[in-house]
Amino acid sequence: MKKITFWSLAIVLITLMSCKHEKVYNQIVKDETTGEDIYIGYVNVEGLKADIFKDFYNNGLHNYEPNDSLVQALKPYLEDITFRVIMGTWCSDTQEEIPRLLNVLYTAEYDPLNPEKFEMIAVDRNKKAGNINIKKYNIEKIPTIILYRNGKEIGRIVERFTNRPEADLLDIVKQK
User: Fold this and answer.
1) pLDDT score for 9
2) CA 50/CA 31 separation, integer angstroms
3) Is 90 in contact with 125 (CB distance < 8 Å)?
4) Out of 12-26, 80-94, 140-154, which region has the weakest mean confidence (pLDDT)?
């Protein structure tokens, strides 16, 4: 009997450990300061298109026109670039800058829908992302857009773009 229980327990543990831990996207919580809904944790573009971020997403997508020559110059550099965006849906800079970033990426035919290439993590006003530990990213201001090449950080855009989004991105990817 003990042998059967041991093997049953072993099989259950191995099964649980081998299961891929799926990310949960677009969790909504109440902002402790305002009582309004905000995203916390992993967010995907589909979440930005709906619910609480929809108006900002649509405005940024339709009210910003990327410079075509800068986008064409940027495009070949994006092949081996991945992004991690730490943002707050409650933050006015996030509301303005992230849709503009997505607009540039769409125009450059980069796929921000691919979670292997483009990751967004939403934080609350205390820069907490639910059960996701973001301390290792040393976030000081929101949003922070981190660019990686081959797994190594090559640059950041913190809070706001200094120029046009496509110009700032091009400056980062060309230098490294």
Assistant:
1) 52
2) 18
3) yes
4) 12-26
**CA dist., res. 39 & res. 1, Å (int):** 49
Instruction: Give the amino acid at 129.
Output: A
Which of 57, 60, 32 has the alpha carbon at shortest distance from 44?
A: 57
What pTM value is reported for the model? 0.87
Residue 150 tokens, joined: 């081959």
pLDDT tens for residues 28-66?
999 999 999 999 999 999 999 987 899 999 988 889 999
Q: Quickly list DSSP for 129-152.
A: BTTB--GGG---SSSEEEEEETTE
Q: Which domains does the chain have, with CATH numbers?
A: 22-175 (3.40.30.10)
Q: Which structure tokens are listed for 4?
A: 């059967």
DSSP 68-118: HHHHHHHGGGGGGEEEEEEE-TT-HHHHHHHHHHHHHHHHTT--TT-TTTE
Q: Cα separation of 108 and 90, whole Å? A: 27
Taking every pair of Cα atoms in the chain, the longest distance, rounded to a whole number of angstroms, is 73
Contact predicate 105/112, CB 8 Å:
yes
